[in-house]
Design brief:
The structure is a homodimer of 509-residue chains. Chain A has 509 residues and is α/β, with parallel strands linked by helices. Chain A folds into 3 domains: 15-83, dopa decarboxylase, N-terminal domain (Up-down Bundle); 103-380, Type I PLP-dependent aspartate aminotransferase-like (Major domain) (Aspartate Aminotransferase, domain 2, 3-Layer(aba) Sandwich); 384-508, Aspartate Aminotransferase, domain 1, CATH 3.90.1150.10. The first copy, chain A, has helices at residues 15-35, 50-54, 66-77, 99-111, 122-138, 159-178, 196-204, 227-239, 262-271, 309-312, 327-334, 371-407, 436-453, 480-508, and strands at 152-156, 186-191, 212-215, 243-250, 275-279, 304-307, 320-324, 411-415, 421-426, 459-463, 466-472. In chain A, helix 5 (122-138) packs parallel to helix 12 (371-407) and helix 6 crosses helix 7 (196-204). The longest helix of chain A has 37 residues, at 371-407. Chains A and B meet through helix 1, helix 2, helix 3, helix 4 and helix 5 of A and helix 1, helix 2, helix 3, helix 4 and helix 5 of B. Chains A, B: One of its GO terms (molecular function) is carboxy-lyase activity.
Chain lengths: 509, 509
């Protein structure tokens, strides 16, 4: 190896170079996954600037062997990472990886074709439209989201991209009728449990931030929206001369895993001609199991649906499925037609026929990766049965944990578990509900101590003033055993924390 | 292998599963790159729907061995791909791949961490800020775009994302002063050579499409903008009560590789307080060579700069560097602060200090991949010297081709070559410039025949009514030999096409 001699022409795609560099990474990754359970889950060294100080100020002048680079990854980078693929990662939502996901991504990155228009790699564009149809069928989505049903899907990088695209489509539909000045009167609706991505997206497409409505939810509806609450908010805005544009319904909210009743609020939104987006970023994966498909009831009232295979569907980053009922709306808002794209084949390719999709007009960017082959490899490698088994073992593990929490009088379950997310806390010690400050303090300490142990990583949420600990089960290598161990860990640390707090309280008396 | 038994728990991250699935892909890719030159460069079978017909309507119920899947890739997918990594791919712009790029992406996808906030993987966030600083130094960007100079950079997926983010930042700055209703008065300026991504981006962020100004360029300025033309357009809009918001300056336009004079038009834009974005998506890579850095003269007048390592910098898809002079402007437009992100470490992480960047506030999406490690591996593996050699061999090959075209009286060079893109055509046969219909017809036939041969793939552009053929040199494995061969091919096919056209003309007389 050694540094590349300057007088030797580089052969960056030489099969031997590919084999050599890639093999070094494969060996590294095999070692990483053998050891990942030994790392503290959350980055142990949290000093800002630590990694920056370790690295030189400028890029090297000469090339280096891959082995040197990987030594630096081991020494400088790994200790500063939070290990999202640890089986003890229960924070945020899972971000799955798998051998098939890595393999599929290697194929995508290795072939490195760019299916931005159909003609630029027909098989890649068609594989994408096939794979999103497969996904829609697996989740039991209504026919209107299949290409054969007049709709269709696209693979994007994130929910936020999907939200921006659908918001732009809804907005341009409204502005087409009302004129551009009406942009200041358009209103977007979400709940106080909806992901912040919708607020960000609405602002990005030019909706005034003051026209983003956050509708309050409560324990009574399991923190889901109700038709009454939506109606009240919309009626108020209509009375003010504003224009209801877009409603987000979430199946499986980020904080608590709550579910908005899609049919109920969808009907309400329809009455006002609003665009309804169904966000099932995390929980959508569960719909591969028939026992979870009821949560998508009413999906035929939605104009668009999205879910992220990169969360709980064994798909390495990144991959978001977006389906729309009327592709034309999306394309009207997002298409461009410059001369340098009017190339051989683009004309004869029959754009407009369902078989020849120019996906650049279904997304924000012109450029795009061949994500379809990744998702296709995963579905082929594991099959629908394998994916259902993957989902069900996590749901079962979460259920086990929820039962333990409910059975331990020191703890309480704060919101109903619907999928694989359990929201719990140490219960108020006085038995009253109104000593939240104290209870929150104890729970904050509990979570901090668990995370500091390095043996698990969880994150929190706040609802009705309560600090809630979230156990999000779903890591690709997380099994029941890991959930059992985290329950042991929680009990042990809870005992210490409760003891410490009791001592402080006694001393304060 | 065989299908996964349902009663056996899946181990999707088992080191043996990773090794097995990945090795199959590595073997496949080694074979692919050994053979890539044998495939027709452009997909041979252009029948829409061909691939869709080959694939089943639904995902398989049971998993399959990777070998079966790869057999299907060989049989059903490869013949329908355009081979962007063929050394004979001269279309659009190059989209580089390399052994180090694949290795870096494998690391990124294999570790699969999500540095959306600093605390979610500190080393990943810090490596990103180090790597964008390295890149800025390599390209000789002004200090104001370095973190140490008060600015900073981020890795995104595409120029369009970078454009949307900077447009949103500029827009929100203006609306903060003028009120939201003023959105209908904001104007964005570009040239008739600017990438369509700016028009799409401006529309996405809510600028009225009628407020996107396309300023005409001409051969006299090498198809670059002039300060006079910008001034005239801006003065007209100011006179109408509109608000000049944003100007795009391009170094290396998509159609012709033209260069806008950044200093000249930057000064003009500054006079009106406009945001100036410098788009060097393709040609920015050349600035790693000192002899090309002059094209970036005036960059200190820009508010933001972007370039795409995934084009000509040996970086597999996707990677776009965006630098801004005032991160605060970007963060103001793009930040969100929901409770579920206020997690352990996020508070103590010292957000706001340059060392602890929450990159979710520097981009459209919340989620993000660990792209930094890919670019870092590439810079380490090849070194600055290696990258300069990579750029220079393509520039030399393009120069060689340009000289041949200029020396052959049947051909002409249509626009000056600045980097590695040569724009040429068969010259008007009458010697007059005004028989463009005939000349365009001949050139269309020439390009179609070259592409149909499968031995090269080029695309076209139209400027001043002329149909121009573009030879974009820059493929990772493209060497002088391939450019020589495409010149031979062009000469041979040109002789046939010219003969055929002469015969038709004679028959028509």
């Amino acid at each position: 190896m050694g540094s590349l001699p300057l007088d030797l022409p580089m052969k960056p795609l030489d099969p031997h170079a590919i084999a050599g560099d890639s093999q070094a990474i494969l060996d590294f990754l095999a070692e990483y996954y053998r050891d990942v359970d030994k790392f503290p889950v959350r980055a142990a060294d949290m000093e800002p600037g630590r990694v920056r100080k370790l690295l030189p100020e400028a890029a090297p002048e000469h090339g280096e062997p891959m082995e040197h680079i990987l030594e630096d990854v081991r020494r400088d980078i790994l200790p500063g990472l939070t290990h999202w693929q640890s089986p003890r990662f229960f924070a945020f939502f899972p971000m799955n990886a798998s051998s098939a996901g890595l393999a599929g991504e290697m194929l995508s990155v290795g072939l490195n074709v760019v299916p931005f228009v159909w003609a630029a790699s027909p098989a890649a564009a068609e594989l994408e439209s096939v794979v999103v149809d497969w996904m829609a069928r697996l989740f039991g989505l209504p026919r209107r989201f299949l290409f054969s049903g007049g709709g269709g899907g696209v693979l994007q990088g994130s929910t936020c991209e999907a939200v921006v695209c659908t918001l732009a489509a809804a907005r341009d539909g409204a502005l087409g009728r009302l004129g551009h000045e009406a942009i200041a009167r358009l209103v977007v609706y979400a709940s106080d449990q909806t992901h912040a991505t919708f607020q960000k997206g609405a602002r990005l497409v030019g909706i005034p931030p003051s026209n983003f409505r956050v509708i309050k939810t409560s324990a009574a509806s399991g923190y889901g929206l109700t038709a009454e609450a939506v109606r009240a908010a919309v009626d108020r805005d209509v009375g003010l001369g504003l224009v209801p544009l877009y409603l987000c319904a979430t199946v499986g909210t980020t904080g608590l895993g709550a579910v908005d009743p899609v049919r109920e609020i969808g009907e309400e939104a329809r009455r006002h001609g609003m665009w309804v987006h169904l966000d099932a970023a995390y929980a959508g994966s569960a719909a591969i199991c028939p026992e979870f498909q009821d949560y998508l009831d009413g999906a035929e009232l939605a104009d668009s649906v999205s879910m992220n295979p990169h969360k709980w569907f064994l798909t390495n980053m990144d991959c978001c499925c977006l389906w729309v009922a009327r592709p034309r709306d999306l394309i009207s808002a997002l298409s461009t037609d410059p001369e340098y794209l009017k190339n051989v084949g683009a004309e004869d390719g029959g754009a407009g026929t369902p078989a020849a999709v120019d996906y650049k007009d279904w997304q924000i960017s012109m450029t795009r990766r061949f994500r379809a082959i990744k998702l296709w490899v995963i579905l082929r490698r594991y099959g629908a049965a394998g994916m259902r088994a993957h989902i069900r073992r996590h749901v079962a593990a979460a259920k086990w944990f929820e039962q333990r929490v409910a059975a331990d009088e020191r703890f309480e379950v704060v919101a109903p578990r619907r999928f694989s997310l359990v929201c719990f806390r140490l219960a108020p010690r006085s038995g009253r509900d109104d000593d939240d400050d104290d209870t929150n303090h104890v729970n904050r300490d509990l979570l901090a101590a668990v995370n500091a142990s390095g043996r698990a990583f969880m994150t929190h949420f706040v609802v009705d003033g309560k600090f809630v600990i979230r156990l999000a089960v779903g890591g690709a290598s997380t099994e029941l055993q890991h959930v059992m161990e985290v329950w042991d860990l929680l009990q042990a640390i809870a005992a210490e924390v409760l003891h410490r707090h009791s001592t402080i309280q006694r001393n304060e008396l």
